[in-house]
Amino acid sequence: MNCSVAIQFLPMDATNDDATCDAVDAVIAYIDSTGVDYFVGPFETAIEGDYETCMEILKNCQLVGAKAGCRHMMCYAKINYRPDGDVMSTDRKIGKYHPRRPRVRRARASRRPSVSAPSKARRVGVPLAALAALLVVWELLVDLGVIPNFLLPTPVQVVAALVEDAPLIAGHCVVTLGEAAAGLALGVALGFVFAVLMDRFETFYLAFEPLMTVSQTIPTVAIAPLLVLWLGYGALPKIVLVILSTFFPITVSLVSGFRSVDPDAIDSCAR
């Protein structure tokens, strides 16, 4: 054992103590999984082992924190290394001060209380029962005249209309699904291209990032009438509307994902 490292991991974007503890717990759980000797203190965690193992654990603590949801973190380390001999163990340093305290501290369980998972029948039955109750209340409100029939037809009338007009509805569904699929495919393709360009070229990112942010505040309902005026009543305005609805969220999400990847992890994969 020629190395010991004291690691202090700080999630800088944690909004409360529970979020801080959850992120730190994830890092400590990773350290525990490596099998090295470690000691959890109030401010830092000390690990012991050979130099290469300790350095690998120290590097991976940031990656584990990012996987746990941290987008901004600080990690401070104090390294004790002897290339030609052993370093002083944690037991020797503090064992006499903690005679009843175990040297190796296990990562504590989640702070959230455990809740048993509902059975499959319950997961299916409860939503179906709620839906059935809603339909019954809907039918009664219309039948009793609380809600006028011309404003809200009953569920029975809705089903009857669907059955009667099924061929007409099916034909329109095919057209609508085709337009939606075309718009989705084009929106995803354009979003991917723009995301790659924004991640690769900083100037491109600075030019388009504000536009992407502002675009999220414009409701598509407000754009639809303009598209009809500009492009007519055919399939084109519908496809363009789907592209606009998918392009911006996909681009923003992909750029965020690209920029959250650790460059060191990319370099290690490339090697």
Q: Would you kindly provide a written description of the structure presented here, covering whatever features stand out?
A:
By secondary structure, the protein is of the alpha+beta class. The protein folds into three domains: 95 residues, Alpha-Beta Plaits (2-Layer Sandwich); 38 residues, no CATH class; 106 residues. Helix content is 62%, strand content 10%. The chain contains ten helices and four strands; from the N terminus they run βαββαβαααααααα. A four-stranded antiparallel β-sheet has the order 2-3-1-4. A hairpin with a 4-residue loop joins strand 2 and strand 3. Helix 1 runs antiparallel to helix 2, helix 6 packs antiparallel against helix 7 and helix 7 packs across helix 9. The longest helix is centred in the last third of the chain and has 35 residues. The chain starts with a strand and ends with a helix. About 5% of the residues have low confidence.
User: Which class best fits the helix and strand makeup?
Assistant: alpha+beta
Task: Please give the alpha-carbon distance between the first and last residues.
Answer: 29 Å
pLDDT < 50 stretches: 103-115
Which sequence of strands runs across the widest sheet?
2-3-1-4
Mean pLDDT: 85
Radius of gyration: 29 Å
* Order of helical and strand elements: EHEEHEHHHHHHHH
Domain count: 3
What fraction of residues sit in β-strands?
5-15%
Q: Could you estimate the helical fraction of the residues in percent?
A: 55-70%
Q: What would the principal axes of the Cα set say about the shape?
A: elongated
DSSP helical segment count: 10
Largest sheet: 4 strands, antiparallel
Number of strands: 4
